[in-house]
Design a protein that fits this description.
414 residues, alpha+beta, 2 domains, RNA-binding
Length: 414
RNA sequence: CGGGGCGUAGCUCAGUUUGGCUAGAGCGCUUCGUUCGGGACGAAGAGGCCGACGGUUCAAGUCCGUCCGCCCCGACCA
């Protein structure tokens, strides 16, 4: 992509309304724009990041045997009345009546719908176990949307559901998902903690949350550095209940939550199967969520400096930024174009071909945070060299420009 | 929904206390020139229903009322 033709628009000044680091940087680097409180447009750069995260999620889900499907965002309110969650959801669920007088809602989550789908397909124990997942927009009329995409009324979630014949099968799939989640968050460049959690309106008997330590987090956990116990903050709790060690508070962002649901939903909607023994039993379920859009904010919270975002390799909107400092110099342009064209075959490359001053290019490059950049300047070119800079630590190296392509390739693959 | 803050150019903000001629600055944008390794400089331009509606007044960005929107804290939240 050529910057001069792209829809990238950066902001020099800090938007006053954005308080959290990630929200500010998302606005400044042109990832998102607000439509109204709680609803955000993803601009091309932001969408690239979103797609990269989705890709990681898909790969890890597929790797553990989960199959992707897509459920409707529109749901009959009736399903929620049956599961007993209609009242529980309260005003968080967006409801309306359609022209035929049908009571509809915009899905805040999909346990009811997936259970309905599965119960109509599964008859026998031979069809189990199965794990299904989707990546989809959820709608929640939040009491208080905040911090940009951190808590929005419309957001993207990966939700997976496992279906087993018994608790033993559920335990196995639950464990499988825990491991997949760890891989996903690691690939996203996050350091995270897991904590036992309350099942809340989901119901079920066991649940685990994935928490990303960050100053703008909405939750607070207590961590014992002695025995590594981590739990949601409770009033009155001063010493570690396990080893009596000191507890530290840490604000965190919840990026994932997994639940052992058991038979809560299968019982009410009669999702049953015939076992090997000929007996009819309810399907044993688990559900597993990741806040995909929220992950972008969490990643930025943990990967930034005063100059801007520092994208982890796998989620970065581009692999490489090619920055010719003076586009009107023919040699500079020629070398930049050559590097750009040759590397674009294999990688996502952004070419800053704007006729702008170097200072502006450096500032923008730092802000949008592409992990690696190659700077082509007249002085170095005269010595036959171009400059490679890593965004992470601004580490700089010089390479001969006729071998630049292979050097960069090596760097990108390494 | 309770408490607090704020709405003036694309962005950041003056101006409102004490009403007064044609509403300002910086950045950004357009054109020209000089520049060119960390958000340059000069010149000339474009860009505003001062959130909306109603009231007070000879006169409202400024005072009063209602509404809308945005941000923060709280309650709430897979």
């Amino acid at each position: 992509m050529r910057w001069s033709k792209s829809f990238i628009s950066t902001l020099k000044e800090v938007p006053e309304k954005a308080e959290s680091v990630s929200h500010r940087l998302m606005l400044r680097s042109g990832l998102i724009r607000m439509l109204f409180s709680g609803a955000y447009s993803y601009l091309p750069l932001g969408l690239k990041v979103l797609r990269n995260i989705e890709q990681i999620v898909r790969e890890e889900m597929d790797a553990c045997g989960a199959q992707e499907l897509l459920l409707p965002g529109l749901q009959p309110q009736d399903l929620w009345v049956k599961s007993g969650r209609d009242e529980q959801m309260g005003q968080t669920m967006i409801r309306f009546v359609d022209r035929r007088g049908r009571k509809i809602c915009l899905g805040p989550t999909h346990e009811e719908v997936i259970t309905d789908v599965v119960k109509n397909q599964v008859r026998s124990y031979k069809q189990l176990p199965v794990i299904l997942y989707q990546i989809q927009t959820k709608y929640r009329d939040e009491l208080r949307p905040r911090f940009g995409v951190m808590r929005a009324c419309e957001f993207i979630m990966k939700d997976a559901y496992s279906f087993d014949i018994d608790d033993k099968g559920l335990d196995k799939n639950y464990q499988l998902m825990l491991e997949a989640y760890k891989k996903i968050f690691s690939r996203c460049g996050l350091s995270f903690l897991t904590t036992e959690a309350d099942c809340g309106v989901m119901g079920g008997k066991e649940s685990c949350e994935f928490m990303v330590p960050a100053s703008s987090g909405e939750d607070v956990i207590l961590h014992c550095s002695k025995c590594n116990l981590t739990k949601i903050k409770e009033e009155g709790l001063e010493k570690c209940p396990q080893c009596k060690g000191a507890l530290e508070e840490q604000t965190v962002i919840e990026v994932g939550h997994v639940f052992k649901l058991g038979t809560k939903y299968s019982k009410v909607s009669n999702a049953v199967f015939t076992g090997a023994d000929g007996k009819i039993k309810p399907i044993v379920m688990g559900c597993y969520g990741i806040g995909v859009s929220r992950l972008i904010a969490a990643i930025i919270e943990q990967n930034n400096d005063n100059d801007g975002i520092i994208w982890p390799k796998e989620v970065s909107p581009y692999d490489l930024l090619v920055a010719p400092l003076n586009i009107t110099d023919s040699k500079t342009k020629e070398v930049a174009e050559k590097i750009y064209k040759e590397l674009s075959i294999e990688f996502n490359v952004l070419l800053d071909d704007r006729d702008e001053r170097p200072g502006m290019k450096f500032k923008d490059a730092d802000l949008i945070g592409i992990p690696l950049r190659v700077i082509i300047g007249e002085k170095n070119l005269k010595a036959g060299k171009v400059e490679l800079v890593k965004r992470q630590n601004k580490e700089t190296s010089f390479v001969e420009y006729d071998t630049a392509v292979s050097c960069i390739k090596k760097e990108l693959l390494g």
